[in-house]
Design goal:
CATH class: Mainly Alpha
CATH architecture: Alpha Horseshoe
Order of helices and strands: HEEHHHHHHHHHH
CATH topology: Serine Threonine Protein Phosphatase 5, Tetratricopeptide repeat
Structural class: mainly alpha
Distance between the termini: 86 Å
Length: 232
Amino acid sequence: MTKTLGALLFFGFISSWSLGQLHEFHSQKDEHEKVREVLYLPNGTALSVLSFGYQNVLADVLWFKTVSYFGKHYRGDKDYTWLKHMCTLITDLNPRAEEVFAFCGTMLSWEVEDPRGAHDLFTKAIHYNPQYWRYYYLRGFISMYFLENQQAAEEDFARAATLTDAPVFLARLAASKMSLSDPVAAVAFLTNMLETTEDPNQRAALADKLKQAKRKLWLQQQKANDSTESST
């Protein structure tokens, strides 16, 4: 009886969160018009009150809202003010949500341009699941490409390579001494992510970044060719 009552209270609360727990912000729709967007997000303290023991269900609800939120702003103003907060809430509720960590960490680093936030998120993921190789790989790439911390990257790649189901390329990556911010690394990473990503908005964002990385790589190669020709 108590469990049933708790469930009813939980689902009722999801459908009617009070206005006092809303976060509001204004986003620019175009240069002539502003619209108000209301996000039904609790703060961190409210999570234990909201969940009533149904953390995974609430995490799924917020995950759906997060994917919708990202898609809306990716196609629109690209204002991701609340994305990090939403990701934090979901992973607080369900720290085993591998898809959420991968999506949020990748989009925070590449699309939102918050690599430090992404790095912290993967550190949180590793805390809860230290045997999953992909978290070390993703955090290591952020350290190498965005934060320019080669030593931290190599340590993460080396650790990832020792874990169950780790792909062979990780051992090579750990030993490669790949240079910081290398566009070759970016192309390889983004290509791999596209092969394992199903969400259409995330794929579109990654494809756009891949196009930019390939352009950067092409320019780098052209510069190298010009230097070779001028020296002969």
